[in-house]
Amino acid sequence: MAGVYISYPFCSRKCAFCNFVSAVAPATLEQRYLAALRGEIENHRWRWRPETLYLGGGSPNRIEPEALCALLAAVPDRPWLEATMEAAPGEITRDKARAWRQAGITRASLGVQSFVPREVARTGRKHTAETVAADVRLLREEEIRRINIDLIAGLPGQTTASWRESLEWISRLEADHVSVYMLEVDEDSRLGREILRGGARYGAAETPPEDIVAGLYEQAVEYLEGIGLARYEISNFARAGAESLHNLKYWRLEPYAGFGADAHSFDGRLRRRNAESAAAYVERFEQGLPVWLEEIPARPEEERFFVGLRLSEGVRPEPEEWGRYQAPIRRFLDEGLLEAKGDRLRLTRHGVLVSNEVLQEFVNP
Description:
There is one protein chain. By secondary structure, the protein is of the alpha/beta class. It contains 15 helices and 14 strands. It is globular, with a radius of gyration of 21 Å.
């Protein structure tokens, strides 16, 4: 199943936890970016027909309806099996939701992160739980019924009680898909930099330690499974049939074409990465240069373990792979981080919590 990813790296405000290549930018840059983005899509040589589409960011809900319809009209084979729009809570209007549906959008992913007012305020967001509930209701009224809720475990000041409050809102909203991410601490976000430097801004001093964050994640697994949302990938939970078809292709090494700043593409043989910033991407397009900066051979024989073990279904090693990866497989089985079910390997519950260390062992073992 092939797909399309479209990057729109502009936001109304930059959240403290965000380590993506996204930013608040002048309106003129956004307009130039949209023109470049549409041009890149129109100039693309399609080797296959897309079945899924994902418009991510940033906050692509900022795109005006007319511009969105023109942009998505450049992607062939609408209606797609699935088309997802990322959106910031509180920035959805009925006119926009109606335009999204007319443009082919069938699924919305809301960057909620938390339903607890104090936690939301520290991220830089301005929504409330009631705002999210109103957005969900509006989307469903406009026939966008597949809805994902993003949550972050490990936000400053978060406790098991406040985390439970956010999880209970999933039940109230009857969401059919939830993404749960553990807070990433690195130099690419304002909060991450503050934590690493021992500061107190953005509530950094109240960030839960790693063992508590792991406990919050396990709390989410238990709660979500209890209300019928099974974990099908390390960070993703869904009711049967509501899994993200687009995101599954990343973990199953299916092809996709990426458009826009910092977008990646994979055709089964090569991986390609576009210019990282919106400004650099626009400048390259306007100068008639390729918008991609890097093209490297893919190594599916290694990558399929690295990405496939993220899935709850795990991977089915080929006979030669059992031999090639014999040492790490045996070690992780003995340590209880991997388990064998028939002819498949998959992470155990404990293995999920240290997945980065496990997965890394299958690259150049």
